[in-house]
Design the sequence.
């Protein structure tokens, strides 16, 4: 009797632990360079490409997340629990590049020095191409952007 | 012993339920909830799919309408008017996930109405639009 009880308990513990591990893995992708989080993908990715956290420093993300009710012209406010989970994810995986300490943190990825430098060879007419439409539309040229892959080899500028 | 089994199965059921937050509501239930909200407004005379369609397709302030992003055919894939981000079909006939979670419905009506109208939608407007969307065939 005692043994059966013990086995049942062990089984319960193992099943629950497995469940917890699975959801933790789901919540936070661990692949280097392409960190993922289900809520980030869902909420940020609902209106625009879910920009990888490594594209901005933590200070920028904190400012963006604190001002979601005035998010580049839209009220993108989230409930407190969702907002704090996404903020934590962004901060944890933010860019650690040395960036100039500015009076105000940069909020637009396109205004960061690395973005400008990486895209210096992109012609003005390509930015204006309706198939590209906006520099926020990463996937227009970065064919594998959805999986966090921005490798130059996978860039295909639509013509 | 029996109690342990009971507790265990309860925990298991809970784990399964929270892991799959599949369809908490049906679109018809969501419509009923909006109706309950609208019924409190004086002069409420029910919803109209026709009025909903007109609302959906009429450009408001900022020259935006629902169809700016969801297109004139809610059964088709839409596209965010600023970012080009793909938006899955809105009509329940074409996308079974739509209008199955009251919280999500409230969130997106609030957000999108604010973008299009600079205010929240009334229960009448929401009910009209959902009535219209329920008439859209795949």
Sequence:
């Amino acid at each position: 009797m005692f043994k059966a009880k013990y086995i049942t308990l062990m089984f319960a513990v193992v099943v629950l632990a497995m469940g917890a591990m699975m959801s933790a893995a789901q919540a936070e992708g661990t692949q280097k360079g392409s960190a993922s989080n289900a809520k980030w993908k869902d909420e940020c990715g609902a209106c625009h490409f879910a920009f990888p956290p490594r594209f901005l420093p933590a200070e920028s993300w904190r400012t963006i997340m604190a001002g979601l009710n005035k998010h580049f012209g839209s009220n993108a406010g989230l409930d407190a629990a969702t907002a704090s989970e996404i903020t934590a994810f962004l901060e944890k995986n933010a860019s650690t590049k040395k960036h100039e300490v500015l009076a105000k943190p940069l909020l637009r990825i396109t205004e960061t020095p690395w973005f400008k430098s990486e895209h210096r060879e992109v012609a003005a007419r390509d930015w204006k191409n309706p198939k590209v439409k906006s520099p926020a539309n990463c996937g227009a040229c970065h064919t594998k952007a959805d999986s966090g892959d921005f490798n130059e080899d996978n860039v295909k500028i639509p013509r | 012993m029996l109690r342990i089994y009971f507790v265990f199965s309860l925990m298991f059921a809970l784990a399964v339920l929270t892991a799959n937050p599949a369809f908490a509501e049906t679109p018809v239930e969501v419509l009923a909830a909006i109706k309950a909200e609208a019924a409190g407004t004086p002069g409420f005379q029910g919803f109209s799919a026709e009025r909903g369609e007109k609302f959906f397709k009429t450009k408001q302030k900022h020259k935006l309408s629902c169809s700016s992003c969801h297109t004139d055919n809610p059964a088709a894939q839409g596209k965010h008017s600023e970012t080009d981000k793909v938006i899955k079909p809105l009509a329940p006939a074409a996308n079974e996930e739509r209008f199955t979670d009251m919280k999500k419905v409230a969130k997106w009506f609030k957000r999108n109405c604010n973008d299009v109208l600079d205010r929240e939608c009334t229960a009448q407007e929401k009910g009209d639009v959902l009535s219209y969307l329920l008439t859209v065939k795949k």
Notes: Residues 44 and 70 of chain B are 28 Å apart (CA to CA).
